[in-house]
């Protein structure tokens, strides 16, 4: 099982494909398997794709204390250092997008391009999960029944149009149960998210940036993406109509193509 040790965490990672390095940073409760093979596979033909588990989640080493988004960004920089990656195209979704923002601010030299998906910057105008959906997720986690919690996550993270085909639930359930996601770590991730605010600093990011957001995102409403794009000089905003929070899961080929085009354009520039 490939792992690297950073000053504050031991992280599991997977590295596949060939080409310029492309680093994938997952969101709250997400693991390396949460990207799904259709999305990752569509990128591995042109990129050296690195997917990893954030501290305390998935196959990374357990943790027992609080942390911040900035500290997880430091973990990410440490991972790159350990793998000998001087710079990479960075893709961060949801909480991973918050980590990517802090990474871009602390280590701009390490980013060739930046893609921020379905994420949040904090500060005025930002909005976390709608109360109804937050209650559904918390009730699912509090139920003590794994399948109830997974079903709640499915309903909140995926759009009604996608969920209309009930056959799609099996792949989501398999992904959610393949590797562990400790409840204690998820609670610590939530605390870190509440403390995140880069809104006053985003203007410092000069990395070419693509912002992607589904218009029916039930976790972080789509105007968060529009706000981030407005605060980032020269950022490009892509709204995915009738798509939910996990846009790369609902539309893997389109999502990979948007990232591919953005990364290759940044490389040419």
Q: Secondary-structure map with pairings?
A:
Elements: E1 3-5, E2 10-17, E3 20-25, H1 37-44, E4 47-52, H2 69-82, E5 88-93, H3 95-106, E6 111-117, H4 131-142, H5 146-157, H6 160-163, H7 169-178, H8 183-194, E7 209-214, H9 223-231, E8 236-240, H10 247-250, H11 252-268
Parallel strand pairs: 3-4, 3-5, 5-6, 6-7, 7-8
Antiparallel strand pairs: 1-2, 2-4
Helix pairs in contact: 1-11, 2-3, 4-5, 5-7
Describe the structure.
Strand 5, helix 3 (95-106) and strand 6 form a beta-alpha-beta unit. An 8-stranded mixed β-sheet has the order 1-2-4-3-5-6-7-8, sandwiched between helices. The protein has helices at 37-44, 69-82, 95-106, 131-142, 146-157, 160-163, 169-178, 183-194, 223-231, 247-250, 252-268, and strands at residues 3-5, 10-17, 20-25, 47-52, 88-93, 111-117, 209-214, 236-240. Helix content is 42%, strand content 17%. It has one domain (3-128, 182-268): Rossmann fold. The protein has 11 helices and 8 strands. The protein is of the alpha/beta class and 269 residues long. The protein starts with a strand and ends with a helix.
